[in-house]
Design a protein that fits this description.
CATH architecture of the largest domain: 2-Layer Sandwich
Structural class: alpha/beta
CATH class of the largest domain: Alpha Beta
Strand content: 25-35%
Number of domains: 2
CATH superfamily of the largest domain: Metalloproteases ("zincins"), catalytic domain
Largest sheet: 4 strands, mixed
Amino acid sequence: MTKTMIKEHVINYKNQSIHILIRKNKLSRNYKLTFDKKNIQGLVSIPKHISFKNGFEFAQENIEWLSNEVNKLYPLILIKNGSSLSIRGKKTKIIFEKDKNRKIIISENKIVIKSDRDNYKKILQQWLRDQILSDSRYYIKLISKQINLNINEIKLSNSFNYWGSCNTKGIIHLNWRLIFAPTSVLKYIIVHEVCHLKEFNHTEKFWELVKKMCPNYKDQIKWLKKNDSYLYRIRFD
């Protein structure tokens, strides 16, 4: 019989119910604690020979940190009729209306989703992904010309760990949640990833190149550090 390698626990702390997932990993040599923003739970990785009891005690020893991570994501922003979201950095009201003609009406501070079926969220999410792709292609076209590089493809991710990534094939992955950030932040993330195609590591030369392409990049980093929790709190379900 295969031994259980995963156990779940709940720690009650300061009126919170903090979910913990403890996993035994045969490759692990030490205890490791991370936080899963998507599922809002602590993740404890322990060596195979360590008991789940010890893994649970390790989580308890770090409960203050886990509690702070949970607090950053609450209250969740559940998208529904009447929600107000920051789209491209501007406050926008979301309206769902029943209509036999499916369409999207966009004004300066409002988006109206019309449909004869209860699929408003799906329509909105696809529209948001289309918008971030359109914005990204525009900036990548400008930036790649300046830096004399070809970007082969842009892909969207739903990562809760990074805003952008790239690979040696010239493919850039961007987090679709950047649609909720100011366009200056999106531009910085794109500059960051495009520059990595020239300079792989975060060397002084890399940051000089970033600064050349995006002089106010430090302001964008500050914005992300201050507001990343807001972006992760937005949920469709």
